[in-house]
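Troubleshooting log. The previous structure file for this entry was overwritten by mistake, so regenerating from the original sequence record. Sequence copied from the archived sheet and checked twice against the printout by T.R.
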Amino acid sequence: MKLSDFDFQLPEDLIATRPVSPRSSARLLVAHGGAIADRHVFDLPDWLQPGDRLVLNDTRVIPARLSGRRHRHGVQGAVSAAIEATLLDPRADGTWSALIKPLKKVKLGEEILFSDQLSATLEQVSDGQAYLRFNLTGDDFDAALEQAGAMPLPPYIAAKRPADDKDKTDYQTIWARNSGAVAAPTASLHFDDPLMSALAERGVEFSHVTLHVGAGTFLPVKVEDVTTHKMHAEWGCVSAAAAEEIRATKAAGGRVIPVGTTALRLIESAARGGVIQDWVGETDIFIYPGFKFAVTDALMTNFHLPKSTLLMLVSALMGQERMQTVYAHAIEQNYRFFSYGDASLLIP
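Regenerated output below.
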């Protein structure tokens, strides 16, 4: 299985840099059996049945991109330098791993000021990553970060425009509650209150799980033999209640449909024994063609990058040739791609 098997040509103008409004007015490509239908997300209830269960990732994206300055007194007097930091993961010792640009401008033990309230000290550097200790913790840290930080937009959007205050709403799901992600579970961005009400009236049920999406979700695959690729690890939790709800849906003959690849990867991690159980920990599960799904019956997801692990995941669910047809149709019909783009409902 070669990396080139998952390549395709995407016109630049199909990369979405802003979402549509209202959220549920995004287009929805439905691939069901051998057919393809062009609809909108607000049509989702028409494709689901009473007793189906949507699995929703309730992670909350933190405003992880910070702009600051470091100050230093040298032989030429006081000097300062602009520093950009992107937070990656909190660590058990209280520090945050981060990417810093330019890293060489900061010395170990040096302080970076991000706002009047928020500063951090560089404690360690390893493999190009910085480890920062902030002056605040807990709710005080969260409040200061909310004021000083910007949303960590994906590289393909950040290259076209900077993040702004609108992204603090647009790049967050309506059910986000557990802070820790540095990328959004983007299929969930299409849901708004009217759609949730329509789904509930249809008899669709919901379960919440948490997977803190990491910056590694944007890392390219660099090996030609995709089976040798090593996935990044992300922290997740499936509660006992959520696991029981999913088991009950399966037992009753309903379909379990994760919204987004993050929710899918998490529930399949929790079901490696064949039956989903409550689960907490880090998962580096890599899903590519040949994978045996234990709980997933269908998937709602956005359109993914060429040569990405997410394209491999949807190919595992639907088949490679089928996904090539789906993506060719999406491009021909001018669907909007990637994080702020349109959605697909994939039913094997």
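The chain has a mean pLDDT of 95. Archived copy saved in two places this time.
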